[in-house]
Amino acid sequence: MDAALFDMDGVIVDTEAFWREREAETILPAAVAAGDPSQAEIRGINYRETYDHLADRYEMAMGREAFLDLYESAAAELYESADLMPGFRDLLASLRDRGLRIGVVSSSPPSWIAQVVDRFDLDVDTTVSTEDIDGPGKPDPGVYAAAATRLGVDPSDCVAVEDSPNGVRAATGAAITTVAYGDDPEATELADREAADPTELRIVFSELGILR
Questions:
Q1: Is the pLDDT confidence value at 16 over 90?
Q2: Minimum mean pLDDT among 63-67, 72-76, 185-189: which range?
Q3: DSSP-assigned letter for residue 84
Q4: What span, in angstroms and rounded, lies between the C-alpha atoms of 191 and 162?
Q5: What's the confidence (pLDDT) of residue 44?
Q6: CA 111 → CA 77, 117, 129, distances in Å?
Q7: How far apart, in whole angstroms, are the C-alpha atoms of residue 32 and residue 51?
Q8: Residue 100 pLDDT more than 90?
Q9: In the CATH hierarchy, which top-level class contains the domain 3-14+83-207?
Q10: Which residues contact residue 212 at a Cβ distance below 8 angstroms, ignoring those fewer than 6 apart?
């Protein structure tokens, strides 16, 4: 493997529980007038595309700009207080020692990704947001294909770590070996490998020949 590509929320930074709670208790009830969308169907999708997804399927109670404001105000609060996921900094250092190139591949907008990278001083080679590419975001594979191109590596020589089914679909769709991280059963079923916690993730990386 020449490169490791990481989703951000729930993989690099511990924000997934926050977003699930905020969506369930505030955003979806306020935004959708009729219908009962599940969080699973929007998880891992860029929040701008989330509005389009919902509006195509449900009666909406608010316009696009008001919906985006709900996410943006939440993000302003979140990324100044969220912690790194356990074990991530040590894993990043180990991958660097092995000479791998590192990318962050996220549905979050570039400014949110930059805030996390800068706040924690993460040593990465590239960051790719859904909003950076000309085309749809996750679960479409384009964002992962773009990350491999930016790093100058073949997708078959990359490993991706994702925690959502839509993220796994994007990475595997780009022919990248994908590890489902966490406890989502659908993501686990779709991925090539699985790791429930930082210890298991290091074991998987060792089995793939990335770490000793």
A1: no
A2: 72-76
A3: B
A4: 9
A5: 82
A6: 14, 10, 9
A7: 10
A8: yes
A9: alpha beta
A10: 206
Beta bridge partners of 161: 6, 179
- Per the listing, tokens 């020449």 go with 2
Give the contacts of 1 (CB within 8 A, at least 6 positions apart).
100, 157, 158, 159, 177, 208, 209, 210
Tens digits of per-residue pLDDT, 133-163?
999 999 999 999 999 999 999 999 999 999 9
Phi, psi of 9 (to 5 degrees): -70, 120
Of 83, 65, 70, whose CA–CA distance to 23 is shortest? Answer: 70
Locate tokens 């491999």: which residue?
Answer: 148
Per-domain residue ranges of the chain: 3-14+83-207, 16-78
Question: Which helix (H) or strand (E) is 103 found in, with range?
Answer: strand 101-106
Candidates 31, 24, 162, 19; CA nearest to 79 is 19
Q: What pLDDT was estimated at residue 77?
A: 81
Torsion of CA 74, 121, 205, 195, to 10 degrees: -20
Taking the CB of residue 121, how many other CB atoms lie within 10 A of it?
7
What's the CA gap between 104 and 162, in Å, rounded? Answer: 11
Q: What is the mean pLDDT of the segment spanning 86-95? A: 96
pLDDT at residue 12 in the model: 97
156-187 residue pLDDT tens: 999 999 999 999 999 999 999 999 999 999 99
Residue keyed to tokens 């449900």: 58
- Going by C-alpha positions, the residue among 118, 145, 115 that lies closest to residue 130 is 145
